[in-house]
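Encode chain A's predicted structure.
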Amino acid sequence: MNTLKPIWCAGLLFLTLGGTLSAQETDFDLSAQRSEVQEVAPVPGHKRDHGGIVVNPTPHRMQLDTLHRLDISQGLRLKDRQRCFDDDLGFVRLAAKGPQLDIDFGEKAAARRGVKSVSGAYALDIDAKGVRIVGYDERGAFYGIQTLRQLLESPATAGVRLPYARIDDHPDLPNRGVVEGFYGTPWSHEVRLSLIDFYGRFKMNTYLYGPKDDPYHSCPNWRLPYPEQEAAQIRELVEACRRNRVDFVWAIHPGQDIRWDETDYRNLVGKFERMYDLGVRSFAIFFDDISGERTDPRKQTALLNRLMEEFVEAKGDVAPLTVCPTDYSRLWANPTPQGSLAIYGETLHPAVKVFWTGDVVCSDLTRETLSWVNSRIRRPAYFWWNFPVTDYVRHIVLQGPTYGLDTTLSERELCGIASNPMEHGEASKLALYGVADYAWNIAAYDALDNWERGLGVLVPEAREAYRTFAIHSADTENGYRRAESWETRTFRLDEWTDAAAAALRAEFERVEQAPAILEAKCSNRALLNELRPWLTEFAKLGARGRRTLDLMEAYRADGDVATLWAQYADNRMSDADRRSYEAHRSGTMKLQPFYEEAMEEMGHGLLTRLMGAAPMTLRGIGSFASARTPQTRLMFDNDSTTFYTSGIAQKPDDWIGVDLGGVHDVREVSILQGRNSTDDVDYFDHAVLEYSADGRTWHPLLDELTRQYVIRWTGEAVSARYVRLRRLDSKRTNYAAIRTFEVNPLRVADLGFPLEADDAAAALRMFDGRPDTSYAVDDTLTFGLLPGTKSCTLLMGRPASPVEVEQLAADGATVVARSVVADPFCRIEVAEGAAGIRVKGAAEIFEIVMR
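Encoded structure for chain A:
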């Protein structure tokens, strides 16, 4: 199932990373399916003290007597009554003598011990006589073994001294697991095997294999057999699942080109037969992300029903099918009795499980959404949770808590939950640790406590460093927002207190140090390999934040402007730095915005000191939550291939605009809407261009703009601090995107003096009053001086090698011979007769200030 945004809102990401879109992504228009909310709910729950005993999922009933311990340092004497578990006990020492480890399962044994009559239920008893595990079935006994394993691995047991215990446990949901259903790079075979072991260890019983970019799962080759090597790997995955008591569910995605005829029915059954021969005993059919006649729900259910009768029931050892309907989200599902879901409810075999993503594609699991869908499909839905998937924000790696799941549900409303993870399988384990806990014991699920436990279980060697990275790597920035950095308080320049600055400095130091600690101590090298690009940028973010606090302290002390500018220049992100960060972002909710805002404030303040008056600023504003993030800077980066995006569906009276920092005379506005100017869907197709001096009273500049990507207004100057583009009446529910938003764009003719540069239009950035824009001089730059100029200040990046500065007369003759400049701040006292300045050498110049 596509999480929708890889096609549309990740366009910038693909431009940046050079990625390509698969045929599946480009053939299906998802433009009408967006409706995520931008509200960021806090993480529920609280961290608890478990006394050094960590068991996940949380048992339904666990009584521990830590005053009495069973010493198993000499080993346990195994009595495997069903002879099923020899290969599952590698974590414990087995001996001919010592306390007994008694393992049994079956309805009679379970009834004697009072084990619940549910697949996966078990009881575990530890006392002076030894350890006894009784399962309702083999899977239940296996789960009891996993609980014993976790008790032995808990810090409080030291691996040999088990507390006396009585545990009665069972799963709440019959289907608990993972669907590999994301777009992007499929997991490697090694990662899949690692994850299957993880599922078994934490009592997940389902792995749905459905990688969107596996051509033999989907178009064009779903009819064809797997090549020999891939078939051997499928067989190995099935065997790994068997060892871990996990159902391997092979999914097929034929809906893009299936023909509703006997030939393709036989093709489908033939593919199932070949997968059956590889050991597969559970199957799913995905009709998601398709269009046209293949979305016909009656033909879909007719196919499923026939397969249930002629394949599933005929085989006798195949589980009932699972289906993902085309209408898998409430956002676009037809709610009427004629809708696809209602037809599913009327016609589909009652044993077939039906997937559902909720109110939108990436959304919380709520009682209300289940009531809505269950009343139509006439069975408890199977929740396909698009978390922690990041195929729509591939520059993000999600490491925050697993939350957004209603803890009042039961199997009466919900037959199961399958998490759709990231393409980074090892990095998905932290979220899956929470999914396993929730699906097993819903009422007891505590999201924050689970996350705190998971950090220590997954990276015990460097828990605190991993926690530092994880707590600042949790938000998606758009769409399905997640809480991030909730323990960190950032502030603006005028909110500075020494205590707040000290606390933030300590956190930035932890951020800076965490990657090196993880590299040195984390034993899961596969996890490190997945996280390393983000960890590299995370360390840079920590150093950047720490230097920003140093600069803020010096700035507040009214330090020397030349020294402050040098610090500012050294702390700004180069274009290469920014490209690297944009590709692997973290700290997006608080840490990076703190850096961006502080640098913006101080850069503007330094320029104001030098100019003697505040220049006009360009700060993005708007009705969307993403307008309060650094993403709006993409409207002002002088690059029409990048864009700000709302990240959620547009609605009536939404708007995107600019704050100029003060009231200025506005005489021209130029806007490029959408991600292109030809056929993009992300724009206001009916809008008005407005201005305001106070943000309360608005006046139109251009009214009734209809289907205009390119918007330009010029006229008699108006006094304004704010300019915005506001949506008028429209049926459009796409995102909104702006590539450029220019106010009073500067032109060479406006300068009042001559300018000679390789790219004169780009060189205007040196005179735009914005310290965040710059021009790179490769060899020579010559510019004139305004009449009466006494001094000229060049604000530069730190030159790689000294540059030469020469003062010229009007005829080009030298007035003051070349002087060598090696510092970012260069103030030139203008000599008598000088009319211009020549800069020779390689330099990045942010602003030239004449006084």
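The two ends are 61 Å apart (CA to CA).
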